[in-house]
């Protein structure tokens, strides 16, 4: 039964039991209306209330300033790999178009287009910091959409010998597109926590700070609401709900309002086509989603409700703007697991560098990566009710995901098993 199991899967991941209990009731009979949450209209007053409450809970938790918009979309984190390219390239182009018109004065549209073609060819760059398999995937999607010549991999953190991730080299080694007036790169992208490789940025990169920096995009799919975030440093933060926030089905995007109309303008589809740049699907178009309060098309309101319950629960536990309470617990759980792993260097080896160890996805090898030993380790864990510990298929090994709903008790049980296994090894 549920109370005897601790699940360390990387996502989908555990949810608070009380939220699931309420959810099962809400599925059948929401607010005693005789109808369930999956059955009501996404445009009903109830749905609107859910949407507003969930937004408010997130804004409260992370202290999101008023000049940021919170959007709910579908398509997962992967959908946003594409969306960031469509949206930010469009903004970059429109800025360049406005500048060209201003500088060229009254000339024909052909002349403007000619100049823009040249600027796109010479200057359109999307900066990616590749620190693990998810940022790698995001950069590959950008290359697929706009062409590899426009993607500047400012950092490829793979080990030169083994091709493996596990470190974040110093910023002095990154090759970001130089800043310029009117914007250098169309975006600077990083994945705050690499789920597969267990690499987490310990802090916000200094070289992405400042008003003249490219718009910063961060994928927080696997460390959302697990620590404090200074939203103002980012143009866009996104993540799927299915790890720390809720069940699979919605993606959350926090976007600076100045990137949305009426403040900013996006290039027209005609202009993008004329420049051989991609025109994205309307369901990934942030201005459209924002204008419609995330209800451009049918939003899975049940998923939004679950996320809202989880986040309101955290607000109730820790207080408004007090994500630091959750942060402390996340840190503590991770610390005790790493400490135990470090205590037995002959048995366990943590995969990533000490300075970038993820608090959320703890990746390690048993017996130097011996397949039989790791199989035995996992089987022993399962017997103790410790599930979901198998590493990602692409890297193997063990991965203990330590998301918000993993209890301190669960982490302690894992520590006890790690001790026990190591003593017997
Ligand atoms: N980014 C990160 C950091 C992830 O961990 C994942 C999924 N595990 C994704 C993106 C992709 O998300 P999705 O499966 O929702 O498309």
UniProtKB/TrEMBL annotation:
One of its GO terms (molecular function) is pyridoxal phosphate binding. Belongs to the class-V pyridoxal-phosphate-dependent aminotransferase family. SerC subfamily. This is phosphoserine transaminase. One of its GO terms (biological process) is L-serine biosynthetic process. Signal peptide: none annotated. Its EC number is 2.6.1.52. Keywords: Amino-acid biosynthesis, Aminotransferase, Pyridoxal phosphate, Serine biosynthesis, Transferase. PANTHER family: PHOSPHOSERINE AMINOTRANSFERASE. Residues 7-124, 184-414 form the Aminotransferase class V domain. One of its GO terms (cellular component) is cytoplasm. It comes from Lepidopterella palustris CBS 459.81. Its cofactor is pyridoxal 5'-phosphate. It is an enzyme of class 2 (transferase).
């Amino acid at each position: 039964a549920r109370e005897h199991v601790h699940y360390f899967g990387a996502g989908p991941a555990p949810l608070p039991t009380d939220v699931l209990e309420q959810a099962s009731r809400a599925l059948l009979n929401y607010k005693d209306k005789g109808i369930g949450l999956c059955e009501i209209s996404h445009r009903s007053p109830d749905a609107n209330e859910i949407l507003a409450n969930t937004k408010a809970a997130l804004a409260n938790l992370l202290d999101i300033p008023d000049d940021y918009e919170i959007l709910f979309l579908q398509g997962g984190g992967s959908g946003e790999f594409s969306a960031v390219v469509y949206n930010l390239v469009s903004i970059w182009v429109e800025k360049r178009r406005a500048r060209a018109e201003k500088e060229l004065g009254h000339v024909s549209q052909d002349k403007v287009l000619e100049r823009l073609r040249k600027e796109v060819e010479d200057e359109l760059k999307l900066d990616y910091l590749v620190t693990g398999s998810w940022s790698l995937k995001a950069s590959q999607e950008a290359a697929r959409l706009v062409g590899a010549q426009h993607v500047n991999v400012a950092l490829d953190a793979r080990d030169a010998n083994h091709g493996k991730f596990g470190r974040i080299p110093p910023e002095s080694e990154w090759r970001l597109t130089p800043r310029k007036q009117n914007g250098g790169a169309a975006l600077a992208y990083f994945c705050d926590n690499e789920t597969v490789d267990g690499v987490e940025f310990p802090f916000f990169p200094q070289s992405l700070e400042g008003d003249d920096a490219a718009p910063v995009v961060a994928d927080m799919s696997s460390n959302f609401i697990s620590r404090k975030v200074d939203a103002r440093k980012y143009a866009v933060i996104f993540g799927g709900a299915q790890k720390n926030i809720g069940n699979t089905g919605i993606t959350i995007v926090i976007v600076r309002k100045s990137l949305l109309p009426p403040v900013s303008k996006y290039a027209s589809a005609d202009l993008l086509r004329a420049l051989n740049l991609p025109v994205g699907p309307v369901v990934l178009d942030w201005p459209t989603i924002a204008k419609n309060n995330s209800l451009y098309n049918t939003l899975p309101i049940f998923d939004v409700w679950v996320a809202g319950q989880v986040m309101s629960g955290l607000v109730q536990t820790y207080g408004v703007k007090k994500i630091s309470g959750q942060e402390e617990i996340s840190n503590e759980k991770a610390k005790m697991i790493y400490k135990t792993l470090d205590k037995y260097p002959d048995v366990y080896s943590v995969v990533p560098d000490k300075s970038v160890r993820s608090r959320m996805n703890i990746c390690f090898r048993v017996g130097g990566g011996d397949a039989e030993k790791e199989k035995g380790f996992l089987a022993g864990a399962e017997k103790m009710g410790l599930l979901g510990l198998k590493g990602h298929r692409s890297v193997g090994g063990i991965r203990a995901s330590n998301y918000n709903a993993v209890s301190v008790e669960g982490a302690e049980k894992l520590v006890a098993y790690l001790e026990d296994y190591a003593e017997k090894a």
